[in-house]
Design a protein that fits this description.
There is one protein chain. With 275 residues, the chain is an alpha+beta fold. Helices cover 19% and strands 23% of the residues. It has a single domain, classed as Jelly Rolls (Sandwich), CATH 2.60.120.620. The strands form three sheets. It has an eight-stranded antiparallel β-sheet. A four-stranded antiparallel β-sheet has the order 6-13-10-11. β7 and β8 form a beta hairpin. The longest helix is centred in the first third of the chain and has 13 residues. The chain is globular and about 60 Å long. It starts with 5 loop residues before the first helix and ends in a 16-residue tail after the last helix. The chain binds 2-oxoglutaric acid. 2-oxoglutaric acid binds next to β13.
Length: 275
């Protein structure tokens, strides 16, 4: 009989879980200071090994590969508030491939008017983002951590999820119109979807196969989140980012294993031979 607790049960049922006060007040403050100091970048512009690459123009400013932006972001790689669950949910736990890979990480800043049309869902049948539980083990393709750096309440442009849609057979009728058309909508109504309100420091963990997006921000000011997407150790980064040697050298061995689960094998480079 597998030993699953309430969190596992609800994660399986709904496809998401909220971790209250996941990070310390100190780390939250350091992250906010980092956001205050982000340079103003044009779309596509680089800042070291970080690039502004907004995935969805309406959603706001997204600084990709944010793990390269300093210690506070490095501390999120294997944060104790989520890393063990991630290993269980999408780390091919207990197999010869056991381990995680951080395949995307970005800082998102959403200002008034910004929103993210609902997307994803099990009906897509994608391997990379799938929800899967098989032979007594979770075997998801991608599980995300969305960490609130600012409070996210009504009107703040919060994340929406459609509970259970990580197992749905059909696309939600409200999501059937082309994405570009829906991106132009003033208000997107998706019956059954719920908006997740978070306090700064809370984290939303969700399997990417859940249909998700974000409501329009109507309040002044900005919503700040960091999104880290994890998958099995054999993955590759979503946009082709390559973690820098400097980063790989300065992080802890456990963090390096998540950034580079497999050391590259090249001729004339010393590498311990596996038995
Ligand atoms: O910004 C959000 O709250 C949702 C982000 C999202 O849907 C995504 O990154 O796929």
């Amino acid at each position: 009989m597998p030993d699953h607790d309430l969190q596992d049960y609800l994660f399986d049922l709904r496809g998401y879980h909220v971790i209250k006060q996941a990070i310390s007040a100190e780390l939250l403050e350091e992250l906010n200071t980092s956001y205050d100091r982000f340079p103003s970048l044009n779309y596509g512009q680089w800042w070291g090994n970080v690039q502004r690459l907004d995935n969805n123009g309406a959603a706001g400013t997204e600084l990709q590969n944010i793990v390269e932006a300093g210690k506070p972001f490095e501390m999120l790689i294997d944060h104790p508030a989520w890393i063990d669950r991630l290993q269980t949910y999408c780390g091919e736990n207990g197999s010869h491939l056991s381990g995680l890979f951080l395949d995307e990480c970005f800082a998102s800043v959403r200002r008034t008017g910004g929103f993210f049309p609902m997307h994803s869902g099990n009906h897509e049948g994608l391997v990379r983002t799938q929800y899967r539980y098989v032979n007594g083990r979770f075997a998801c393709g991608q599980v995300n951590i969305l960490l609130a750096i600012s409070d996210i309440g009504p009107g703040d442009g919060g994340t929406r999820v459609l509970p259970g849609s990580h197992k749905s057979s059909f696309i939600h009728p409200a999501c059937a119109a082309p994405y570009a058309e829906r991106a132009a909508l003033e208000d997107e109504i998706v019956d059954g979807a719920i908006e997740i309100h978070l306090e700064a420091g809370d984290a939303l963990m969700f399997v990417d196969a859940i249909c998700h997006g974000a409501t329009r921000r109507t309040n002044p000011g900005e919503r700040r989140v960091a999104i880290y997407r994890y998958g099995p150790s054999w993955g590759r980064t979503r946009h082709g980012f390559v973690y820098s040697d400097a980063l790989l050298e300065r992080v802890t061995p456990a963090q390096r294993k998540i950034l580079q689960p497999m050391q590259p094998r090249r001729p004339n480079e010393s590498r311990k031979l596996e038995a």
